[in-house]
Structures are given as structure tokens and as C-alpha cells.
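pasting for ref
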Amino acid sequence: MQANLYLLQVLSKKKTTTLDRQRVFSLVRQLYPVITKWANNYLLGIIPSGSYAKGTSVKGLTDIDLFISLKNLTPWTLEDIYNSLYNYFNRILPVKKQNVSIKVNYKGLNIDLVPAKRMPDATYPHSIYVNKKNTWTKTNINKHISVVRNSVRSNEIILMKIWRELNELDFPSFYLELTVIEALKGRKFVCLEKNIMTIFEYLVERFKYARIVDPANSQNIISDDLTDSEKQKIIESALISYNEPYWNKIIW
């Protein structure tokens, strides 16, 4: 019970509030005219996605994702769209290429811009460029948001994101979110302490070979996003945490 109260206190301190999110969105919306100009009449919409939209954001740790939906008739290839967005923002802001996004820093806030082309005769499915593999994949951010928000695991996900940062682990957020959901599958909410320990146990015993599939695209294997050595670092950190008797040395 004492451990559970401690974890609830960490959540209270680290979980973003409605006011926090309103402030972030107010700042981010200042970039909308810039994105609209870049899109050159092919823009369908700019959609906040990622942790802020899913309710799993952490104060001071979470980037905000903006999904840039372009018309299917956009004449450029997905690679050209990706590079064009990078070059456009590179002239005005600090930028960095990532796997499917362009990270920009605007007034101290990291924003991941994900350019996408809507698929023919569809509302939500889009095609996005995968920079690391020089290919493309199908995605549906509405499905991603729905799966995470409806999982009723936001508190556990937030605590594991804090743990990830404290251990300096390369563990992509969507992969982490789906892993937490899978680790707690079929488990009723008992208490945070027991659920987090269940997640650590899953990471130690099953994570390395677990096949995590994108719920919006069965061809996209999320668990392939990390190498065996990257997964091993997560496993080793989870084992240390599992055996640590004091919660204030695991998550704070």
C-alpha cells in the first residue's frame, strides 16, 4: 500500500495536466501557418498525435507529435515529401531527421512533424516514409490513439516512460505503450505496484522474443524497431528494477 501511494505521488508530480496540454497546444499552433505554406494547397489537416493525444504524456519528457495529412493527389513521392519538409524547416529552425518524423525545436519545445499522404478512397489510413529503411509503411494514427486511450493503462505507461528516461533507454514510445498493454493483458487493475512489477517481469522473461504488431497494419512489426542489443539493455534494466527493494530507486 505504501509503495502504491508513492507511485501515485510520482504520477501526480509528473503527469501532464489539462492546463499543461493547453499551453503546449497554444505554442504548437503557432507553427500551423508555416506548415500550411509548405504544403502548398495539398494540406488536409494537422492532427496532434502521440503521447499528448493519447493521454500518456510526461512533464518535461515528452515531445509533441503533429501528423501532417496531405491529399492523395499530392504529386511528390513520400521520400520527396519527407525531405522537402526537412529542407523547408531547416532554413528557419533547428531540425533533425528521425525514422518517420522531422524533429524541430520551437521556443524550447521539441515537435515531431510526421508528413503523410492519405491513401486512396480512405479517411484515416495514410502512407508515411520510413527514413531508416528507405521505404514506406501504412499507418492509422486514429487507431493508435484509440488503442492506447481505451486500454485503461495510461498510469502504468506514464510510469514506464519515466523509468525509460531515468535508465536512458532507447524504447520508442508506441512500442513501449503496446508492450505495457500486452504485459497487462487480461489483468484486472489491482494496484500500480503489482502492475509495474508485472511489466518488469514481462520485460525480463518475454520481451526479447515477443512479436508486437501495429494494430493498424499487420505488416508493420513494431518489435522490429529495436535490435537485439537494444532490447537486451531494456531487459537488463528491468531485471535490476525488479530486484530493487526500494521504489524511490526505481522510479522518481
